[in-house]
Amino acid sequence: MSKTRSASIFLATALAGTVAFAPSANAASSASAVVVTVCSQGSQAQLSASSSGGSIAVDFSVSGAPAGHTWLAAIANRGTVVYHGAKVSDANGSWSQSGSTSNKVGVDVVTGWAADLSTGEVCFALKTV
Known about the structure:
Blueprint lengths: L2 H13 L18 E5 L5 E9 L2 E9 L6 E8 L2 E9 L6 E8 L6 E8 L5 E7 L1
């Protein structure tokens, strides 16, 4: 199976909520904190989510990856997709995606997933707001 197909299957499964990951110890931290996790091959993923009024501002990024690689990425809030698409790492091996989502009743669980289509590296971060 190709790495592109594997990454697509991984993200589709994650978006469906059927993949369980152990988030970092910071995952249940305050709304203004940033969650940082280590990806499967050593890159670093960072997810921030902060609520203001009826919306949540979200930023998901990966750093320390090879330059020029295409990543398939997704951000979701309790299963509602905020962003899904391709990102290309810059000369420093980084990329970032921002977005916003509605602040739902109860606890919001914001997640970010990414897969490097060249190496197969995967990243996951989870933040409660």
